[in-house]
Amino acid sequence: MTAGYGETVELLRHPVTAGVTRDLTWRRAQLRALRALVVEHEDELTRAVVADVGKPALEVRLTELSFVVQEIDTLLANLARWTAPRRVALPATHLPGSAAVHLVPKGVVLIIGPWNYPVQLVLAPLAGALAAGNTVVVKPSEHTPTVAALLAELVGRHLPADAVQVVTGGIPETTALLRERWDHIFFTGSSAVGRVVMRAAAEHLTPVTLELGGKSPTFVDGTVDPDLAARRIAWGKFTNAGQSCVAPDYVMVTPDAREGLVAALDDAIADFFGDDPSASADLGRIVNDHHHARLVELVGASGGVVTTGGGHDVDDGHYLAPTVLTGVAHDSPVMTEEIFGPVLPVVEVADARAAVDLVNARPRPLALYVFSDDAATRRLFEERTTSGGLAHGVPLIHLAVPGLPFGGVGESGMGRYLGRASIDELSHHRSVLSKPLRPDTLAAIYPPHPTWKASM
Ligand code: NAD
């Protein structure tokens, strides 16, 4: 049986209860140390992610390392403003006095990460947790063991042991961690494990942020240039070989746009990755045997037509070609399970309303992408659907806009983070009222109450 982590939690709780982490100087020092960890070890971190996930090195630098550095810089630049007490006006009946919301550290936070962006998805929440004055245990994914071991070593070298600890391991270690009493649990991963985490958190009434997955739909109609739309969709889908939580999962296309879009997707894939995508240095690989076999089976069981790609080779680092499918049934596994790989079904819908109905008939997605030059169509999606985020004309990059909170809704998660949202999410919002004893304005409501007051 895996050992408990009670002593680790106690060690981390101490600076919080001693008030050390309330000080913005402490928080800035941790954020700067974290920034140095990323910047000074950029090459090692890049090599580790490439080794574990098989994504191109440039992608690692852009979507993981630069992303984290930008997040830290945004937090550092705004820390004083975002953590300052938020004054609240008092009603006349409460005057004289003053009221404010104080953002105070929650305490000790557990961050559990997935394998697909193994650096970004633990270090960006970590930056937010430290900025909010928390101490943290980080549990990276066991499916990226090189990254997990490197993070454990680097965190030990750059950050104080009573500020951040990294615990490596898989289900047994995470299960043991979840038995401890945390002040907040920040989980990124599948909806299935999100339920496990939430059940464990309920035992201690611990609040949770759940950043989960799902199927993010994309809508395309005949009002947009199919070549431009296809290039954006192909880029969003095939970055990290489709293993992004916000990747366009499937495309809904109107009949007038279908043929043009499918041809344009084929062209975009050839432009990006050449005639033989397996030889392209810009195409990532599938993380492991399990996911490779799952994706190959998903394509085989789709009942659809492969219009582009379809090739695969487990011995070539788990290669799977960028694949476009048409003619798949709405109830085939590729349309009901999260794809999480470079397989893009294109399904025909009669019009935007039919697409809205399809979205609304399914669990609420993490992201929704709309490609339409018609303002009424764009409004229809804004007003008639819900999703974690909505982006018109471009996938993925809404989560790299400082100021836009990132998070899911319903099956795709709860809570939000990045930038100010991280500080809001990972702080306790404490209501503080101050009222002078004199004048004693409450005298009017003290007992004994005359009968005329009781009838009010
Ligand atoms: P996962 O849920 O299998 O694992 C995530 C973490 O949970 C890992 O650290 C793992 O060790 C731990 N874990 C797994 N099973 C557990 C159990 N039974 N008990 C306790 N802990 C357990 O997810 P994954 O395969 O690593 O990541 C892929 C999923 O994550 C996809 O569904 C994807 O959409 C989602 N995701 C979401 C976001 C987001 O920001 N919303 C980002 C990336 C990935």
TrEMBL record:
Active site: 211, 245
Alphabetized SUPFAM superfamilies for the sequence: ALDH-like
GO molecular-function terms, A-Z: aldehyde dehydrogenase (NAD+) activity
GO cellular-component term (any): cytoplasm
Annotated Aldehyde dehydrogenase domain residues: 25-431
Superkingdom of origin: Bacteria
Transcription regulation keyword on record: no
UniProt KW keywords: NAD, Oxidoreductase
Protein family: Belongs to the aldehyde dehydrogenase family.
Protein name: Aldehyde dehydrogenase
